[in-house]
Design brief:
The chain is an alpha/beta fold. The chain has 2 domains: 192 residues, Rossmann fold, CATH 3.40.50; 86 residues, N-(1-d-carboxylethyl)-l-norvaline Dehydrogenase, domain 2 (Orthogonal Bundle), CATH 1.10.1040. The chain has 11 helices and 10 strands. The strands form 2 sheets. Strands 5-4-3-6-7-8-9-10 form an 8-stranded mixed β-sheet, with helices on both faces. Strands 1-2 form a two-stranded antiparallel ribbon. The radius of gyration is 23 Å and the shape is elongated. It starts with a strand and ends in an 8-residue tail after the last helix.
Length: 299
Amino acid sequence: MAGCRLWADSGTRIEMTREDEIAGYRPTVEVRVVVCGHGRVGGSFARSCVLAAIPTWVIDVQSVVYQMPTILPIGMNAAMSVKFVPPVSLPTLWYLCTPEHVNDDLVRQICESPGFNRATDCIAVASATWDTSRVPEDLGASVGRAHPLHPFPPAATLMPVPCGTPFGTSGLPEFAIHLLESMGFVPFALDDQDRYLYHAAAVLVSNLPAALVQQAAGIFMRCGVPDGHVVAAGMLCALAEVISTSGPASVPGPAARGDHLTVKADQDAIDRHDPDTGHVHRILSEVIVKMTSGSDNSR
């Protein structure tokens, strides 16, 4: 959803965009943020920082930095290496929104850069799964985690992270936690032992449904439904609205209302169409039956 709707005392509806919402937050601590990687997560987080009037640097490869002047919001600086980030008196959060395989080398580069202050700064990875304990002790760096629970759009959209987004955190100093809170986010402690299970759950709900949309859209188009992908995606969004309002047990459909004949007929048809999709249909239908047991979903 692009923004939220508020009602003024006069009864007039006010449209509040995501940018307006985030711009209403101001950090309660004076900090600088250096975002490494202007991709989906890094681009959105950097945008949020600028809207919250936080001094921000973005570090990325040459091709990205060269095009930054055309999209660079006021208050953001860009460079191709952390060594170009100048030292400041403010504590700095170095936020790594980069592929996991470059993090080892990048952490070392940050620790050796003139703008890094071991006494005040913190390095945080956006990854939920990268092992922060692998950082060598001789670097003397504080390295933690701040994983946003949100499916991000392509970086070119320049959409900020929505207010209220939970951030799974570990190993962050107090100033970094306060920074996330003051930007309207919801940091929570994530046990490192749970990080893979937690990430699997995030993928389950924010990535894998795209595969269901793809399969359903293909069937829709075969059956003559116009704009099958648009229709399938719209149905998923509508279901998300139902679930967010009334809970998962409010899901509609034949499995939820106990219409076993229809469930079997559907299962037979999709098995004939594609056994793999039929396998997924069978498993999810059984889950729906179990979670809606005792609920009245007939209307």
